[in-house]
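Office hours follow-up: a student asked to see two folded examples consecutively, so here they are.
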Amino acid sequence: MKTSNMKNKGRIFGVVLIALSAVAASAAAGPAAAPIKIKVTAELANVRQKPSIGSVIIRQFPQGEILEAVRKEGEWFLIKFEPDESGATSGYVHESLVISLEEIPRQEQPSRLVEPPLKTEPAVVRPARIEKPVTETPAAPVQAAPAETAGRASLTLYGGGNLIAGGDLNTAGQGLADYYTGAIGVAGDGKISPARMSLLYGGEFALPLSPQFFILAGAEFHRAEKSSLVSYARGSVTDTFTAMPGLQALPVKLGLAFYPVEYFFVKFGAAYYFAKASYDDRYAHDKYWQEWQGEATGQGLGFWGGLGLDWPLDRTFSLVFEATGEYASISGFQGTGTYLDSTTTTTVTETGKLYYWDARTSSQTSYPTAFIRSKSPSEAGVENVREATADFSGLSIRVGIKIRF
């Protein structure tokens, strides 16, 4: 009987000892840290994978959203949230994008153990020092983080310049100048300059698909035109030939933009071109002159791609610098051409397509030519007839201002 009682007492003592150990461990660990309530004050708060402005954006919360922060690390709050399709459940938000709704708890310092005096002499009683209250210095205002560029719709207005290939009208203008050189027998002074360079201006709207990907839609306008003069001096008379080819385009663009890092982007897409081609050629010898004029319109598909910098000025505006390459060779131009000379008062008008062909004057020599004709040229000396092409392929530089919504 005594042995049974002893065993029961031993068991009770063991249970009590385990309970006391658990209580002591709980007391040593201290109370669990309470979450910090914070509220989003920016239009859109980006949550990043790491506490860095260059880290990947994993979530976004709109203005007024209430979040729970586990703790604060420097200028960043570590927050917890429900997982989405990415599977992330925590991330960091910068303090400039939120405001704390309650006091941030401070980490308590562990109490120091008081060591016993080394000497056994009676302790000298000294008057207690009166501690002066510590006045906390207000923290300096935190400078706002750089403006966030990801995940917001935007409109970009830009201007710049481009250099295009030009196409058949440039070649035909030089062909006529060479024809008169052969017909007159005098080398021309000057040359025909091609229409290749122009100013451009336009706009582009971007709609976010994700923080890094945007769908783009926009349009721009550019026109290249160049007037040239070639003189043929023979005795007291100087013949002249002038040529002014013109190329105009209004491409309507659709594409995608990708931001591999926050301020650098790559973009590409397709464009549908509404184009116009024109020519104005005139030859003059003393009182005699000839003049050809024409204007035709065409449409066609092209492709483009580019890269650039998106430099934020604040949360709404950015400066954009962009370089773009384009490919667009368009034919099938329809329009009206006229011919007039000094020997008649009647203008010859033809409505039809803009054709390009080689005009042969001898077995050794032929000259490229382009005019609007009501039907395909088939007279003597005409070779290699085809529809004329306007080539808008080339390079362009743009500078603009981006407005975010």
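And the second, which I mentioned at the end of office hours:
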Amino acid sequence: MGPIRALLAALPLVALLAGCSSNEPFEEPAPVPKVVSTVDLKERWKIRVGDGHDDQLLYLQPLSTSETIYAVSANGRMVAVNATNGKARWKRALDVNVMAGLAGDSRHLYLVTRNARLQAYSRDNGEKLWETVLPNEVIARPGTNGELVVAQTIAGTVLAFDAKTGKKVWQYDGSVPVLTLRAAAPPLVASDAVLVSLASGRVIALSAVTGLPVWQYQVGVPEGRTELERLVDVAAEPLVLDTAALVVGYQGKLAMVDLRNGQEIWNRPGVSSLHPPALGQGNIYIARFNGEIRAYRGQDRRELWRQDALAWRQPTAPMAVDDYLLVGDFEGYIHILSQQDGALQGQLHFDDEGLRVPFQRLQDGSILVFGNGGRMAAYELRQRD
């Protein structure tokens, strides 16, 4: 990619780089595609969670368990919801503004406040249990394995705390480029390792005991004359598949990496995304940064199809459900695509303030959607009569 094309491709980054609260893209988005629906989304229940993202560039993804969904808004409204019927089990009005969350284990919920406090709350009733001060702002939700809770700051510092007490256990000091995206992947915390994704284009495995690096993998290599051209942030959460993980970066590549040693199993270059891939029917689906949705055959990574009707509409991470692929966009539309050929099969307008966090599949098979404006709902996907 030449310097002029790279600059044009990077124009929508202005909002992300500056931390702007606006959802409006700087590249002209494609119009809302007209769809003749063959499949519908039937609402099962809905509830409101405060002001949602409160017109800020946040990623407050709900935490789903088999029986309960926990959600929090930017203005500190936290709720535990029955996953089957959407009725609130408890509600809390926190005295903080929330920046990142939610994460949780069998006992606790974790979030990070706007003034850089990592806080732990009871899953039973939302009571605050402890808090600790972080050195810098955090925009990705923490990670936990039940023993440790790990937060990663925008300065590249990774900190691990005792999940029961909030006492710091270790710290890893990474480095970040001069210019980075306003997006980050949450740390993945296993019993023996912590997987972190960095703005330098690397994925690093740290020892869960000491915080020392075990291995690292370079997803993207900074190239070009300007800082914009050299952006290679890994903002997509790695998709773990047994002993391997799929990783993707901005202006980087899609790759499968062995989690035991960081060795590359395969890669497909030229894939640029801020979202983790989805898997379905033996294929890999990617929402590219320019809004294109692409499908690659898992066996050899050959491109099967691409759908450009959502160009520059800031699609969410795709989710595979049955024979379909679901993505949201910056205007709050849910788009339903065929996994077979990418054709648009259905559409629903959900939230005027847009969609940013990925959809989730609940235990009963329904689809959880959380809009930027605070509306949360569960839907059933069904064929139209």
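Two things to take away from it. DSSP finds two helices and 32 strands in the chain. The two ends are 47 Å apart (CA to CA).
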